Structures are given as C-alpha cells and as structure tokens.
C-alpha cells in the first residue's frame, strides 16, 4: 500500500501553525501562573499536557516536509538532518548560555548534546525529528490506520515492559526525557498521530463547503472550552496505570480537537495572533525563563506587582526578539550546504 497525501489547503497549514500557538500560549500561561501567581501546580500540569498539540502539529508539518523532499526522488538524510540540526540546536545552545549565566553552572555534555536537556521538550522534539524519516517510510507503506495501530501497539508494549523493570531503572525510563504522559516515547506517539492525519482527507483537504463562518467560530470557541478543562483533568498527577490511561485520553482529546479544526467545521478565534505565536513557539519556549531572569536582574522582579507591569510592557520587545531568533535559525538551516541543489525537483523543507 502506498497512499498519497491529500493536497493541503492554506487553511490546514494555518491551522496547524495556530495549534502550536495554542500550545505555547497555554504553556507560557501555566509557567507564569505557577511561578508568580498561584502556589499549586494544576496549571503547570495542564501546560505539560498542552504540549501534545505541539507534537501533533509538528508531525503533520513534518509529513508534508518529507513528502516535498521525496517528490523529486533524490531524498537525502544528510540534508534533512542538517536542516533539523540548524533549526533546533543553535537556538537551544543560545538559551543554554542564558541558563549558564543565571545559575553560574556550566552545562555538561549531556545538556549540551540535548540528550538530557534542562528543557525536556527539546530532547523530545529531537527524538521526533530523528525518528520522522523512518515513521514516514513506514506510514507510506502501511497506510495511516495500520501505521497508527502498529505504533501505539509498540508504545503500549514498551510501557508495559517498563513497569516490570526495577524501580530505579523504571524511574529513568518513565522520566520526561524518554516518556511523555507516562507512556514510553509517548511524544513520538503524538508526533505519529500528526503524521497520520496528513494522510487523511478529513484533515488535509476540503472538497466540501466549509461550515458557515459564524457557526464555525462558535464551534471553535466551544472546542476550546472543552479542550482547556480536559487538559487540566488529564494532565494532573495520577498513579502509574491511571496516568498511562490518561495519556491515551489526552491523545483522543487532542486528536479530536485537531481534526475538528482541520476539517473546517470549526475555526479558531484570534487566528493571526495564535499563528504568530505558533511560528515563534520554539524560541518562546526556550527564552521565556531567560526573559524573566533578565527582567529580575534589571530590578523588575516578576513576583512583585510593579515588576509584573514592567514585564508586561517589555513583552512586545521579547516577542520581536523571538521572531528574529526564529528567522535567523530558519535562514541558517537554508544555507547552500544544507539546501537542495539548484535545479533539483525536490523543494526545500518548511518548518
């Protein structure tokens, strides 16, 4: 079996960008609330769960990137991994320097390589980038349904096997570095959902009329209203088995939310703002701690009322910095030695 991807619409591409925007907005709000406003961590757990949307959106985008690269018949793993390397590592190393400056502790080799990064999400997204070509090849051969069943079957078996390990080893295997939502390599599972969605017409091309705009926006608000409490409920701490089951529930919730938006039945409010956040989500995630540390060093402590006001006033400058950082990383990844040769039929990747 060798299915072809449905032709995506601009709406589908904008929607996946906005999904990343929703994810980073919830993450940033959860970090801000738990660090400076409230003492409990309910919002923090919801932010951790919201990252599932980022994995799904990234998987969808990577499926299209790999499709473009394979279109000319001269796919190169070196070029693909070179692109991913310069897209992810320079910004991460810059953020790592900020952590070094704030903590006065030099990063070790594990942190520098991002194998065990201070940002658990960086390690997770690198795992996804490394696995993407293999997942894509299997997906093209097996089709989205067999691919999904096989992938989640393997992840379920790995999670079940991890529970039989000694407690000290199990704690390492089920850490954020290797697992997500208490599922071993669960982040790759969510990433795989996004890749599989790219092969389904319901989430890629609209051949039927879209829902009326007013109704679509109302459905979008209703979908958001259902997503947010679901993230809080499913993201909270639970026992080992309950946490794994909650991870599957989170996969179902985020997949349903994504399909409703990609199918055109619902439209997100504030799409342009969310898309802006989505395009710069990686830099926002990396540099947010450095931003608050820098503001505190300037005397504007975020945990004071005056400091919060100044942090809010300086936020636009921080957003511009993140946009410039993302643009620079994208420019670097497209340098000639990592770009397809002129005249090649394959198109360079997009994020």
From TrEMBL:
This is Acyltransferase. The lineage of its organism: Bacteria, Pseudomonadati, Thermodesulfobacteriota, Desulfovibrionia, Desulfovibrionales. One of its GO terms (biological process) is polysaccharide biosynthetic process. Keywords: Acyltransferase, Membrane, Transferase, Transmembrane, Transmembrane helix. Residues 18-320 form the Acyltransferase domain. It comes from the Bacteria. Coiled coil: none annotated. One of its GO terms (molecular function) is acyltransferase activity, transferring groups other than amino-acyl groups. One of its GO terms (cellular component) is membrane. It comes from Solidesulfovibrio carbinolicus. The chain crosses the membrane at residues 21-39, 45-64, 85-102, 117-135, 147-165, 185-204, 216-235, 241-262, 269-287, 307-332.
